[in-house]
Amino acid sequence: MENANALIRRMPAAFKPEAAGNLSLRIVYAIEHPMTVIVEHGMCRVMDGAIDAPDVVLKIRDDHLVKLMTGKMMGLTAFATGKLKVQGDYSLAAKIQDIFDRKQLNN
User: Distance between CA 91 and CA 28 in Å, rounded?
Assistant: First the structure.
């Protein structure tokens, strides 16, 4: 099974700048080894660790994140069943699935 951190590191390759437009978004993945994804100016970058004052914090177990990112679990289902906890701006959190191509993460 793919490692959650490895999948997050591939997010820039799956980023869809045309879908993001001029969106500015800072996401912290609160997993075993936290990571931050920053979307701004039509670009996406990933950093190890958690930044201060992110727009969204996604708290999820590593194995559940892998399922979520590879399409084996839907975000709404994960949220509704308590497997995914969201802190921060819910409207920005909802856009995450639209600005990344999940198929690119599965390669």
Answer: 15
Q: Is the pTM of this model over 0.85?
A: yes
Give residue-wise pLDDT tens across range 2-59: 799 999 999 999 999 999 999 999 999 999 999 999 999 999 999 999 999 999 999 9
Q: CATH number, domain at 39?
A: 3.30.1050.10
For residue 106, is it within any domain? Answer: no
Total tally of structural domains belonging to the chain: 1
Q: In what order do the strands lie in the sheet with 25-30?
A: 43-48, 35-40, 25-30, 56-60, 84-88
Domain containing 44: what range? 4-101
